Amino acid sequence: MPSGLNVCPSCGEPLKRSWRPLLLTLIVLVGLVMAAHLLLNCVPWDELRILKERVKLPQVAFLTTPTVTPTFTPDRTLTFILTPSPTPTLTEVLLLPTDMPTALPPTATQAPKPTSTPTFSFPAPHLLAPEDRAEFRGGGARIELSWEPVGTLSEDEWYAVSLRFTADGIGHYSGTWTKEKSWRVPRDLRVQAGHAERAFQWDVTVMRQTDTKPGGGRKGVPQSALGETRTFMWY
Questions:
Q1: What whole-number distance in Å separates Cα of residue 153 and Cα of residue 155?
Q2: Quick check: 213 pLDDT over 60?
Q3: What is the pLDDT of residue 22?
Q4: Phi–psi pair at 185, nearest 5 degrees
Q5: pLDDT band at 176; cut points 50, 70, 90
Q6: Comparing C-alpha atoms, which of 121, 129, 124 is closest to residue 147?
Q7: Which of 60, 72, 116, 232 has the most other CB atoms within 10 Å of its CB?
């Protein structure tokens, strides 16, 4: 029947519209909404981006072989002098080098000076949390390292937090310089660590800044002894 008719021209019965196209359109819209929800909430885009950055192409270095040119130094010089005599003879004269080494008088060996134990302005910071060998699971774990304050820090003094872990047998380092008495571990470090190497070691030292690195980091000298080192497991 033509779409504009409301009554059948053959029998006179009223024509009813079919709901099948509207139902199919509704099903397609629901499928698209579900697919977009899965892509946004179930796919770990952050971990895939970090794994992509870790892939590095191997570098090949070509080594050159040095060329050695042999040199020959004569050991002695022969000079033949003809002396006036009834029977001329040849006399061999051996010329020795004039720059003979001169023996130097022995010098007295100085005894090594005793080394003094360095003194620090602050005691080693006492670690509070997490406890040694604590365990965390999942990329959403909140890991906050904390310690007791050692006193009032000057403008150029900082708490230096050192965090160490391994990936495929290679050691990696992280951390920060802060005035606070705690530091939250970045969550992306869990992805950077190796699959079978889940141990993270950390400690805290008081440092005095003396310079700035070209990349923007700080350089300094310790103002406290290195205290306790703790380890936590992040699976």
A1: 7
A2: yes
A3: 82
A4: -70, 130
A5: very high
A6: 129
A7: 232
Question: What distance in Å separates the CA atoms of residue 47 and residue 58, rounded to the nearest whole number?
Answer: 22
**Distance (Å, whole) CA 212 – CA 127:** 27
175: closest CA among 156, 160, 153?
A: 160
Amino acid at 184: R
Tokens 């079919």 locate to 18
Q: Which tens digit of pLDDT belongs to each residue from 156-173? A: 999 999 999 999 889 999
Report how far Cα 69 is from the mean position of its chain's Cα atoms: 43
DSSP at 22: H
For the chain, the distance separating the N- and C-terminal CA atoms, rounded to the nearest angstrom, is 67
Q: Which helix (H) or strand (E) holds 38?
A: helix 20-41
- CA pair distance 153, 147, nearest whole angstrom: 15
User: Which domains does the chain carry?
Assistant: 127-234 (2.60.40)
Q: Show Cβ contacts of residue 125 under 8 Å, excluding neighbours closer than 6 positions.
A: 147, 148, 149, 150, 159, 204, 205, 206, 224, 227
Measured CA to CA in angstroms, residue 194 lies from 133, 157, 172, 181, 235 at distances of: 18, 34, 11, 29, 10
pTM: 0.50
